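ERR on first pass: missing label on line 2. Operator R.T. fixed the label and resubmitted. Corrected input:
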Amino acid sequence: MPERGEARRLSETAPRRIITVMAMSGVLVMAFILLFLLREGMPILKGASITELATGRLWYPVSAPPLFGMMPLIAGSLAVTLTSSALAIPFGVALALFLTEICPKRISGFFKITLEILGFLPSVVLGFIGMVVIAPFLQVRLELLSGLNLMNASMLLGVMILPTVATLSEESLHAVPQSQRDASYALGATRCETMFKVVLPGASRGIAQAAILGLMRALGETMVVLMASGGAALLPQSVFDPVRPLTSAIAAEMGETSVGSAHYHALFFMGCILLLFTLALNMLVIKIESRGEAD
Amino acid sequence: MSQAKLTIESLSLSYSKGTSPALRDVTLGIEENSLMAFIGPSGCGKSTFLRCLNRMNDFVRGVEITGRVLLDGKDIYAPDVDVTSLRRRVGMVFQRPNPFPFSIRENVAYGPKLLGERDRGKLGEVVERSLRNSGLWEEVKDRLDAQASSLSGGQQQRLCIARAIAVEPEVLLMDEPTSALDPMATARIEELARELKKFYTVAIVTHNMQQAARVSDHTAFFLMGELVEHGPTTKIFTTPSDRRTEDYITGRFG
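pass 2 clean. output:
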């Protein structure tokens, strides 16, 4: 019966094609975003070289003539990312160690749920706390001109990325086989020795990846830095200086600029820079992963 | 009869209150520099018993242990005993090879380093001696810095033996050390076990009766948490005094 054979073949191939098309759409969207970013960002290079943009220290996009020195913004992004990671990674790893190695199972469940909720917290809520609670506190206690600064934003970002770092670290600590812990105990190691000399080294690759994913989140986060970083496009000299990371500059200025202007293109160019950073970090994660497989 | 290295007196263990005990009133002596095998069907308590001898059962929540285990006449369950130094005297090799994710050298050096040995020369000597005594040296001497995971299963198990003897224990416990290995690797481990008893008191749990017959001086037969019978291996395997032992070794159950 040729017709039935035909119908069967169709019922076999059609779903496969549909699924393939749907799967490809993700890649296509990504490609379009990339092209769009480049198309809108590259025209800025007609008026200024990459070196001028990257090393210029003055960001006055609406002065006459406009100055598009992005160094303070890039430095701002790197500063909040690194400061927040320096705060969050030790706490995140310690929390993960506590959950897997120290606290009883009944309690660890409670901690994990709390951590999850912390991860779902809208960033605008954190920004709010930064403006209303942390900023006045820093201003009064440290006698600063403004409490909206690098430290404030980094603390909030640290809270934001803590769940990412802790959860992923916890997973990789958990993946260290119990048999290796037993082997360590059987050699007369204490719990602490086992934790630091066997479990932590065994999970180091996963923890490194967790830290990098945390860095990526911090780098891309916008709302918290927009609300709490102070917004001054200056090279930070201390952790209590206000900064203006790339993300908050884009968010704050995009609405004020006219489409197709140099400023507009400059903002898109900054988007390209952010993408480049995240891509580099992503490559690092993949590299760590593949090195693990080679062992 | 030479002096008993380990004397176990009415040892009972239950994993939680109200459940039937996993070990019931076990009394047994293990002679110095001899090899004793614990046999019995799965779930008979032989591994649990072995883990009592270096207090690895301490980690099990709710476990209750009564009775005494004397190492050189001193109760290892006495309140003043330091469990970590006990475990240095009573080493252990596990069912599945469980090397650390370090190099071969670092695996063997782990124990001595815990004891505070920092001198590279001395650590090198310990690593070489331990690997020689576990019969692995010739195979790995040129690649001590290779990952332990690059070794075969049998080699990994001999590495674990090297790691255990690197801290110079007095007793070596082996919990079904060949259950994950092929016959060739098993034969090597058995040969090694016979060699090791010259230096250590060895206790080996095995589900393989032929293995017990091949390697051990003494055999203890466990059934449902009870020590049914123990004695010289030849006697247990030729003229057992208990009917249940005879049924087990002749393959009527198990």
